[in-house]
Design a protein that fits this description.
- There is one protein chain.
- This protein is an alpha/beta fold and 484 residues long.
- It folds into two domains: 145 residues, 3-Layer(aba) Sandwich (Leucine Aminopeptidase, subunit E, domain 1), CATH 3.40.220.10; 321 residues, Aminopeptidase (3-Layer(aba) Sandwich).
- It is built from 14 helices and 19 strands.
- The strands form four sheets. An eight-stranded mixed sheet has the order 7-8-10-9-13-17-14-15, with helices on both faces. Strands 1-6-5-2-4-3 form a six-stranded mixed sheet, with helices on both faces. The chain has a three-stranded mixed sheet with strand order 11-12-16, with helices on one face.
- Helix 8 links the parallel strand 9 and strand 10.
- Helix 8 crosses helix 14.
- It binds ligand BES, manganese (II) ion and zinc ion (ZN).
Length: 484
């Protein structure tokens, strides 16, 4: 579906949509004004966020569908939800073109309604060759009708972010036989056309650098690992050191020799959701030509259990020189991140690093699917991220870090072990990564295990890949890393 913008109501639309704020009088500027008000009354509709009333009425001698959609308090989240509700209702309705009457809504709000609609309409039908006619999406265009001059600009800005989210969702949705380290990199090649610099390390490069932890994970798979770095400098050199984003990109996580149980293992195709969020963010930044200097790094591996795989008890040496006793090959994300983060620091000397990873199942136990977990060595950065979470809808909740947790990953034979005791598993995982963050670097770790995939439709997504993280990082960059 695409969003169009028009100063006047297009004549060919099959559906007119009227946003209604909570408790406001229902008076759309149509012939069937009374009918619409009656339908709202009969449906006990009072403009609640995302509530929809549908009626058919005669308009200019034609029968048109009319949707009243609640925009609640009129906050950004309300408008996006309202837009999403419109898409959910119309996407497979048989209609091809609908228009939103933006009278009385400011341009920014209307654009956010459009964003919600666009994001909710996103789906991946690549592999559905037998989709029933009635289940196929029909809605091609949603026109936002408004004479506000800034609407075009507002929408273009949000569309960049939407395209970033869509790219993340695409990568997350693809199965492990399609997206593995090499193909992940291939899918990112189009970003070069947007002005993103791309560099890739292969297995030999990483071996030379001594990335024994990342390579240890990769060694049980026939798919070769990659370290991908995407560079965007929209500051034209003004920002000397980049903000560095690092994503866990385990394209499939079987657990390795510490094999996961069969049921639900298919979910581990989205164990690259952190890397997906990083590349989606980079795409958004490039599309909206953000005045910021950002590098996005993805540690890409597949965690498989073949004859060459790491064994429990193996000791690997990370690029930092620190040794790791691998007690559980399923705690592989931290092994990938520690080398990716070390390399990022050596290469870019950043002041700030944010890593994103579907790192621990314990995250789902503690926060469910409503918040990502935030761990940070810097209160200022943590607060910026918490705020960006609230503003973007990609919410976070902060966890503690402390020496007492750090001790729990000491090993009797190496510098550390890759798992702690049963309790506090998300925290000991974060403490592990913290051991690779250099003095003076502001660092935040986002454990997004519960956020990448949705079993049911949510605010602005259908079930499946959510694209979590892109809007969060984009917001953080707008608020704190952008010059203009
Ligand atoms: N990718 C998983 C974490 C995960 C589990 C993400 C479920 C999303 C949903 C990670 O690699 C993993 O297996 N973690 C282990 C760590 C344990 C062995 C210390 C876990 O959480 O069970
Ligand atoms: Mn694992
Ligand atoms: Zn994993």
């Amino acid at each position: 579906m695409k969003i169009a913008i028009s100063a006047s109501r297009p004549s060919d639309v099959g559906c007119l949509i009227f946003p209604v704020a909570k408790g406001s009088v229902i008076a759309p500027a149509i012939e069937a004004q009374t009918l619409a008000a009656e339908a709202a009354g009969a449906s006990r509709f009072a403009g609640e966020t995302g509530a929809v009333v549908e009626l058919f009425a005669s308009e200019g001698g034609r029968t048109v569908r009319i949707l009243l959609v609640g925009t609640g308090e009129g906050k950004v989240a309300d408008l996006e939800k309202a837009g999403a509700a419109v898409s959910a209702r119309l996407l497979t309705s048989g209609l091809t073109h609908a228009a939103v009457d933006g009278t009385g809504i400011d341009a920014a709000s209307l654009a956010h309604l459009g964003l919600g609609a666009w994001l909710r309409a996103w789906r991946i039908d690549t592999y559905r060759t037998k989709l029933a006619e009635k289940s196929k999406p029909t809605l091609e265009t949603l026109t936002l009708v408004s004479d506000a001059a800034e609407l075009g600009k507002s929408w273009a800005d949000l569309e960049a972010v939407a395209q970033g989210v869509a790219f993340t969702r695409e990568l997350v949705s693809e199965p492990g036989n399609i997206i593995y380290p090499e193909t992940f990199v291939e899918r990112c090649q189009h970003l070069a056309e947007l002005g993103i610099g791309i560099s890739v390390l292969d297995e030999a490069d990483m071996a030379k650098l001594g990335m024994g932890a990342l390579l240890g994970v990769a060694q049980g798979s026939i798919r070769k690992p990659r370290l991908l770095a995407l560079h965007w400098d929209g500051s034209a050199g003004a920002q000397e050191t980049p903000l560095v984003l690092v994503g866990k990109g385990v394209t499939f996580d079987t657990g390795g020799i510490s094999l996961k149980p069969g049921p639900g293992m298919e979910d581990m195709k989205w164990d690259m959701g952190g890397a997906g969020a990083v590349v989606g963010t980079m795409k958004a930044l490039a599309l909206r030509k953000a005045n910021a200097h950002v590098v996005g790094i993805c540690g890409l591996v597949e965690n498989m259990p073949d004859g060459g795989a790491m064994r429990p008890g193996d000791i690997v040496t990370s690029m930092s020189g620190q040794t790791i006793e691998v007690l559980n090959t399923d705690a592989e994300g931290r092994l990938v991140l520690c080398d990716a983060i070390w390399w990022a620091q050596q290469t870019y000397k950043p002041n700030t690093i944010v890593d994103l990873a579907t790192l621990t199942g314990a995250m789902l136990i503690s926060l469910g699917v409503e918040h990502g977990g935030l761990f940070s060595n810097d209160d200022g950065l943590a607060n910026q991220l918490l705020t960006a979470g609230l503003e973007s809808g990609d919410k976070l909740w902060r966890f503690p870090l402390a020496d007492a947790y750090d001790k729990l990953i000491d090993s009797p034979i190496a510098d550390m072990k890759n798992i702690g005791p049963r309790y506090g598993g998300s925290i000991t995982a974060a403490q592990f990564i913290k051991r690779y963050v250099q003095e003076g670097v502001r660092w935040a770790h986002l454990d997004i295990a519960g956020m990448v995939w949705a079993d049911k439709p949510g605010a602005t997504w259908d079930k499946g890949a959510t694209g979590y993280g892109v809007r969060l990082l984009d917001r953080l960059i707008r608020d704190h890393h952008q010059a203009g």
